[in-house]
Design brief:
- The complex is a heterodimer of chains A (125) and B (146).
- In chain A, strands 1, 2, 3, 4, 5, 6 and 7 form a 7-stranded antiparallel beta sheet that branches.
- By secondary structure, chain A is mainly beta.
- Chain A contains 1 helix and 7 strands, in the order βββββββα.
- Chain A is 8% helix and 51% strand.
- In chain A, a hairpin with a 2-residue loop joins strand 1 and strand 2.
- Chain B has a single domain, classed as Protein Transport Mog1p, Chain A.
- In chain B, the strands form 2 sheets. In chain B, strands 2, 3, 4, 5, 6 and 7 form a 6-stranded antiparallel beta sheet that branches. Chain B has a two-stranded parallel sheet with strand order 1-8.
- The two termini of chain B are 26 Å apart.
- Classes of the chains: A mainly beta (125), B mainly beta (146).
- The interface between A and B is medium-sized, with 31 and 31 residues.
- Strand 1 of chain A pairs parallel with strand 1 of chain B.
């Protein structure tokens, strides 16, 4: 992720008042593309674009449940950049609010390549 | 380019209305940005529209141990089933280098929540160092309260 390299990433940051403080309750990548550096055709880097739809689901907890629905395409990196091809990605993650944070309770489908980097860092499933 | 989409949730999200947002310096019900910043940080320069603060090493932020200049970033006036709240988001950058121009130079985000208790605004929740957000010295661009 960097300015000028043609990749655009959007991050969702939810801040929640909790017990007289304010918590960073969850942080997730909600969009990623390489529009600024890709080219259609065989010569350039293939284009990809993925995004997550954010839905708040009514619940009896202090804060609504959170559902993130992934759709779009992703580029799976390999050592040979000429073999890179965009692939479709889809998935749903559900998180519930517990003790000041959003916790993942389920996830189906895929993660993006960028997700994997975050998942490894934050021990996500 | 990295964009942050910051959303501040109030309790029972979805059951209330956000009735005032934007960059207005004067807020409904007599609470001003100057009052809010002074309560939150203990100081406010009305000419520069800034507060100053230093974060400690115990704070989980990119820059600690030096004076920081803090500016209002976003405010929202929320009416939650008859109870009024005011959300103030701030961002802090090092005073010695307010351009703070590097990729990893994310301002430190602070949040204060004031509630209206019998015509008095009370600081009900706050955190001067919720997270670091943005890049190249610029704070997150898309923020909303819900």
């Amino acid at each position: 992720m960097g300015e000028g390299n043609g990749e655009t990433t959007k991050v969702l940051t939810l801040l929640v008042p909790w017990k007289k403080s304010v918590n960073l309750a969850v942080e997730r990548i909600i969009a990623d593309d390489d529009d600024g550096m890709c080219e259609e055709g065989d010569e350039g880097l293939p284009c990809y674009s993925n995004q997550r739809k954010i839905s708040f689901l009514p619940s009896q907890r202090e804060y609504f449940d959170l559902e993130l629905t992934l759709s779009g395409t992703d580029l799976r990196a390999s050592e040979n950049s000429r073999s890179w091809r965009p692939r479709n990605v889809a998935g749903v993650e559900v998180l519930v609010f517990h003790e000041g944070k959003y916790l993942q309770v389920s996830r189906t489908g895929e993660l993006t390549g960028l997700d994997h980097a975050v998942a490894a860092r934050e021990n996500l499933k | 380019m990295l964009f942050f989409f910051v959303e501040i949730l109030s309790a029972g999200c979805g059951r209330h209305s956000v009735i005032s947002t934007g960059s207005s310096r004067e807020l409904p019900e007599t609470l001003s940005i100057a009052q809010a910043m002074t309560t939150f940080y203990g100081n406010f320069d009305p000419t520069k529209q800034t507060s100053t603060v230093s974060f400690s090493k115990a704070d989980s932020v990119y820059t600690d141990g030096e004076p920081m200049t803090v500016r209002p970033l976003f405010q929202a006036f929320v009416n939650d089933t008859g109870k009024q709240s005011f959300f103030l988001l701030t961002y802090a950058v090092p005073t010695r280098d307010e351009k703070y121009y590097c990729h990893a130079c994310a301002p430190t985000i602070g949040v204060a929540v004031f509630t209206n208790d019998q015509a008095h605004w009370v600081l009900s929740a706050s955190n001067r160092t919720v997270t670091d957000g943005g890049s190249f010295g610029k704070p997150p661009q898309s923020i909303k309260a819900s």
